[in-house]
Structures are given as structure tokens and as C-alpha cells.
Specification:
The protein is α/β, with parallel strands linked by helices and about 270 residues long. It is built from eight helices and eleven strands. Helix content is about 40%, strand content about 25%. Helix 1 packs parallel to helix 7 (about 215-230), helix 3 runs parallel beside helix 4 and helix 7 runs antiparallel to helix 8.
Length: about 270
């Protein structure tokens, strides 16, 4: 019997339920071993008014070299926010070295939202992120990120038709990934995810509960990553992630937690299968 191993490339944040602090318990609950490659260490995430950040860029290459010397292999590699063009370059090298014929790479191109790139995101970083697509098996952009990756002018998801989503997903797939999930699409009282999986297209929709919360995308990507590494279809993985987030979001709203406290997922970890 072989237990699946998933490399998690993201920052480690002490408080606020995001990035690896969210991904590690979730992939563990799904019976997948999470292996951490940190990009930075933060006291709290950047949604708080004050935070301490230790940039780990200078340590990433020797850290990866140790993994190489120990002949480590992974069934999956899941990447999250990358804070500089240099970090993206390091991750490109990591994928070249560690992505074997049976290793799935899941890329969450955390670049921006609502038509705006994040303030720290430069044109060079956008160009490097496009290069990363060539190594991805699954990519999970929102509409803002998809437009940027395709060099398209931004259009709100509310102004896009199903044919538009299909064209965007196909164009992204042509750049490398066989699976594309266009995330967070507004559809009346629902939030939808448009799935393109080796030419097959489908939707997973869920009723919108509460407002935006930090770490929601990290929960989504962690569940999708662990599920596809275990051999589940992209649609099954997205449905599982969507259902879990809906339950957890409703519970978090009941607790009346501030938005920067993230999702109170701990109560529901044992429901993940």
C-alpha cells in the first residue's frame, strides 16, 4: 500500500487560518501526507493591520536541495501565493526536478481579484506565472487571474456567458494544464466553479453563504489537490470542496467571527472523506 504525498508550496502563517496552516490539516484529514515547502513565515496574514514577515526565498533552494539529496518523491505538488519573480523561478526549477511522470501539479495562481492585481504583483511576476502554466496539470484561477494569464482585458464574471468561460478555460488548457477550474463565479444567489477537464466541461454551484473570508481559496485548493492526487475526478474534487466550504461557512457565520479569522473548519475536519 502506498500513502500519497503532496508537496505544499506556500507561506506558513501563525494566525488567521490561511495557506499551509489550513492546507496541512485538510490534506491530512483526506489521508494524504502533506510535505511543506515554505515561501515565507508570517505572524498573522496581511489582512491584519500589523504583521511580522520572514521572507524565506533565500532558504528555498538549499531546502529543496536537501529533499533532492534524500531522494524524495511526491505524488502531487500544490502551489499557492508566490511573493516574487524569484520565488516563481525557484518553483519552476522545483517542478522540473520533482515532477515525475505520475506527479500531478496543481497551481493556484494567487495574483488578484475583482479586476485588480494585488499591489505586490509586478508584470515580471505575471510573465513568470504564465511560464508556470506549462508545468501544471490543474490550474485554479478566478476570472481576474484567468484574464491576466491570457493577456485579456478584464471583464466581470457577471458579464460573461458560458461560451466565454468555455473559451477562457480552453485557452488556459492550451498552455499546459489538462484541468482548469474557473473559481468564484457569481451566478445570482450562487457561487459557481466552471470545470474544464480534458475537453469535458461542467459546473459545480453552491448557494452563497456569508461574505468573503481569508483562507477560503486555500481550503478549496487543499481539498481539490488532495482529492485529485487520490485519483478522484476534477468534478468530484470540486464538489467535495464546495460542499465542505458551504458547511464551514455557515458554521463560521454562526460563530460571528471577523472576516480575517478565516473559516472555522476544525469542527468539520472529520467529515472529509
Amino acid at each position: 500500500m502506498h500513502q500519497k504525498k503532496l508537496a505544499l508550496v506556500n507561506d506558513v502563517t501563525g494566525y488567521g487560518r490561511c495557506s499551509i496552516a489550513v492546507a496541512l490539516p485538510i490534506v491530512s484529514a483526506l489521508k494524504v501526507q502533506g510535505c511543506i515547502l515554505p515561501t515565507a513565515i508570517l505572524s498573522v496574514h496581511t489582512g491584519f493591520h500589523d504583521y511580522y514577515l520572514d521572507d524565506y526565498t533565500d532558504h528555498m533552494t538549499p531546502y529543496i536541495e536537501s529533499w533532492k539529496k534524500n531522494d524524495l518523491t511526491f505524488d502531487g505538488i500544490s502551489t499557492g501565493f508566490l511573493g516574487s519573480a524569484r520565488q516563481i523561478d525557484i518553483v519552476l526549477d522545483f517542478l522540473r526536478d520533482f515532477k515525475g511522470p505520475h506527479t500531478l501539479a496543481i497551481v493556484d495562481p494567487v495574483m488578484g481579484d475583482d479586476g485588480q492585481l494585488y499591489p505586490s504583483y509586478t508584470q515580471e511576476m505575471c510573465d513568470e506565472m504564465r511560464r508556470l502554466l506549462a508545468y501544471a496539470d490543474v490550474v485554479t484561477p478566478n476570472v481576474t487571474e484567468a484574464c491576466e494569464l491570457l493577456n485579456l482585458p478584464y471583464r466581470s464574471d457577471r458579464d460573461l456567458s458560458e461560451d466565454d468561460f468555455a473559451a477562457m478555460a480552453k485557452a488556459l488548457a492550451d498552455k499546459g494544464p489538462q484541468g482548469v477550474i474557473l473559481t468564484g463565479i457569481h451566478n445570482g444567489p450562487y457561487i459557481g466553479n466552471f470545470i474544464y477537464d480534458q475537453g469535458k466541461m461542467s459546473w459545480v454551484r453552491a448557494k452563497k453563504v456569508g461574505g468573503d473570508r481569508s483562507g477560503t481559496g486555500d481550503v478549496f485548493t487543499a481539498i481539490v489537490s488532495a482529492s485529485v492526487v487520490r485519483g478522484e475526478s476534477l468534478e468530484q474534487a470540486v464538489q467535495k470542496a464546495s460542499d465542505f466550504i458551504c458547511r464551514v461557512m455557515a458554521y463560521t457565520e454562526e460563530l460571528d467571527l471577523p472576516h480575517n479569522a478565516g473559516l472555522a473548519f476544525e469542527e468539520y475536519l472529520t467529515t472529509l472523506r
